[in-house]
Write the structure tokens for this entry.
Amino acid sequence: MCGIIGYIGKPPVIETILDGLARLEYRGYDSSGLAVLNGQGLYVCKRVGKLQGLREALKGHAFDGHIAVGHNRWATHGSPSEINAHPHTDCSGSLAIVHNGIVENYAELKARLQAQGHQFRSETDTEVIAHLVEEQAKRAPLAEAFRSALKELRGSYAVVLLSTSEPQHLYGARSSSPLIVGLGKGEAFFASDVPAILARTRRVIYLNDHEMVELSSAGAKITTLDGRAVTRRSSLVSWDLASAQKEGFAHFMLKEIHEQPAAAEQTLFNRLAQDAGQLAFDRRTSGFLSRLGAHERLVIIACGTAYHAGLVGEYMLEEFAKIPVVVDLASEFRYRGPMLDRDTTVLAITQSGETADTLAGIRLAKTQGAKVLAICNVMGSSIAREADAVLYTHAGPEIAVASTKAYTSQLTALYLLTLHLAKVRATLEPARWQELAQGLQRLPTLLQRALATERPIKAIARRYAAARDFYYLGRRYNFPSALEGALKLKEICPRIHAEGYAAGEMKHGPISLIRKGWPVVFIATDSPIYEKVISNVEEIRARKGECLVIASEGNKAVARHAEALITVPKTEELFSPAVVAVPLQLLAYHIARLNKCDIDQPPNLAKSVTVE
Ligand code: M6R
């Protein structure tokens, strides 16, 4: 949700800002803009649409400077337009603000500022920050004016301020929206996320909520909103630039689909011993997990794809670790008055670690005495820092809006957690535990083999590319796979309506829609209720629906039940959601490609949902 970059260092800053914005485009792409101090004052340029528009508008401009801010917008208040694009300036046009978040009390602040004579140009909530700072700066130095303005804001913000009055400083602050500081040689950055600065530095400072930073090319001075100095060491991020580039793939999504075997392997690395005899976690996580075994129940909270991973988690944790599990959409959990206590562990699953609903969910859980474990991909993210312990997925940066490698890595982390709990709760015979651990160790290889489905999927995609409605059906562990398959398709192919259902539910309503030729993707891999799934397939075929069946390799009988067939490596049922995720992602990808969709940046979406 909106990408912010701020830079102070050496010319040419415009290229630096555009480069940073290009790497943050996944966070918002309905408009973009930058402000630069060019020696004569503040120059602001904004354009509606993708970043390319801004790039073209800036072509041929001879000026440059040493300090600038930039922004990619995902609209919340005010439609995507040049006026509503960031940066926003004050009445005098001498200070510029870029913001990610929502100022909830903006209407009241705006009314007050208008009464004081401030002229507003946009419909955004953000513009109030510029005028608030301008108002406060009449009485105080810029840093204090910024601090006072921040204290008046309700809601969430990551905000960066550039002013002609202090050409050697940028000011930034955060509250419930991400903002990091990057420190290079004679240069420094603010950014919403690490990939924006990876080309220049891997040294970062993660900020906490209600902290404010005075940034110069020599470094960062951090204070709290009350003015107390904060000492914070920088950390070195392990991601490299290559991991945030397409490296020859047509889209980030395709690259990330292909990275899944490596991402699963990294997530297992050093945790599952070579001989699959035992598990090991880092100290903080180990300590937490050793107590978790005694807890009475788990509540999993997550959004979107991460929620689907949570649903798979519920099946495996209950079946193998015999621990009661509830799975909640984080956006519902926080408002439904959940009953939590000290014996409840809330497990938050999140790629970004910044999803506003999930973050609010863990905060609520903590106020009720529950312990919080996170499965998270981004070190230093808000959820990673606020959870009591973190089981990191090591998927590397996921750039495409559609989540792929994060999903299979989340499943991998859930397999580890299930095996761990099964061991400490002694819910499995040692031989069975060993069998499952060996199965998990083979997962990266199975994911690699599942990538071989790409060729037949390309042909199947051609056959179904013109269809406008799809059902995805599965049962047990693969009911969540059906939800996830449908989400992938509708997310990146907005002209297509796709719905996932539990196959056994069709007869309770949705089957009424089936017409001749309606494509239904069935996940019918080996399971104890495989035959019931095949009965569900036949129910669809009896109504002339077209069944694309994903089945286990070696199943010779299934072909006669399918109009199209994809086979995936045979595996224990609990691992099958990870394996079938690969052809489901590839199917969505190739259908979207044939429909000429904007795969990495689908309309109306953004990668990291940092607003409610
Ligand atoms: O960063 P998170 O895992 O918390 O994000 C949750 C969802 O917003 C995310 O999974 C979303 O549904 C994906 N774009 C789906 O592909």
Q: What stands out?
A: Residues 303-306, 350-352, 355, 358, 401-403, 487, 491, 608-609 surround 5-amino-5-deoxy-1-O-phosphono-D-mannitol (CB under 6 Å). Residues 405-424 form the longest helix (20 residues). The chain has a mean pLDDT of 93. The first strand starts at residue 3 and ends at 8.
